[in-house]
Amino acid sequence: MRYTTFGRTGLRVSELVLGAMTFGEQGGVGAPLEECRRILDAYAEAGGNVVDTAINYRGGASEEILGELLAGRRDRFVVASKYSVTRDAADPNGGGNHRKNLRLSLETSLCRLRTDHLDIYWVHIWDPHTPVEETMRALDDAVTAGKVLYVGVSDTPAWVVSRGNTLAEWRGWTPFAGLQVPYSLVNRDAERELLPMAESYGLAVTAWSPLGGGVLSGKYTRGGTGRLGPTAIGADDLRVARVVDEVAAELGATPAQVALAWTRRRAGVLPMIGARTVDQLRDNLGCTTVTLPPELADRLAASTGFTAGFPSDFIAQTRPWVLGAAAVS
């Protein structure tokens, strides 16, 4: 396992992030405690050091299980959690990105995780009803109090993230050091605005659902079943999955390893791997040994039919008209 820094910070993070959304059996198919222990141990043995959870995962069981499993070795891991999703649907202030929910959510997560601080605290999703300046200042207060070391933002428009970091820069607050987005061969939307924005600000990117909800794992092209029903998978996604299967066969790798290797090719992107069994995790970890030749990477990208759309495509098309002779170089 190789390491990089978390955005423009000195925090060292592994190239694969372990997602703990599967920790616990509440609310659907997940992993029981002892399987979670095996998953975490296998990840750590491979050199992984970042574990990502959230206050709402498995109704709170994910944080509780992770807290138990980290006992005696918490400081060897970069522990990340998120807030935004409501703690109590009957409470008008039970969710959102405002100061009150941040404080109560943070205290809840710290208690469950059995720690006095989080290494990374993520804003889970944009709350358009809370001014971003309130969120940034509240996050900075949590950092000042020593309860949070670094902050990041997930599932939020690029212009909101940009405004938040500009405010932080101007006012001396703690900026977002990381961005979390869905990113895979079947969901490349982040390439339009979010990934270029992250590159400009030097943000680390953790990519959730890098296997497209399991579509790219190979199970559906083999006629298998999973949490996605047959009608939930579009023909375009299945077409991409078949190309992944073909490339995997050529390389002697598994489809999941090829899909993860493609996501890892993008500079600054750290795939988040989630598993319900230790065997699934070990298969995913194998992506670090897969090297995609440029021609195969291009073949995978071409299978998606992705275009950046306006204004990116328009700007590229009009470059010679705008720059004249300078466009040549």
TrEMBL record:
Cited CDD domains: AKR_AKR9A_9B
UniProtKB keywords: Oxidoreductase
GO-annotated cellular components: cytosol
Record carries keyword Oxidoreductase: yes
GO molecular function, a single term: oxidoreductase activity
Residues of the NADP-dependent oxidoreductase domain: 15-300
Protein name: Oxidoreductase
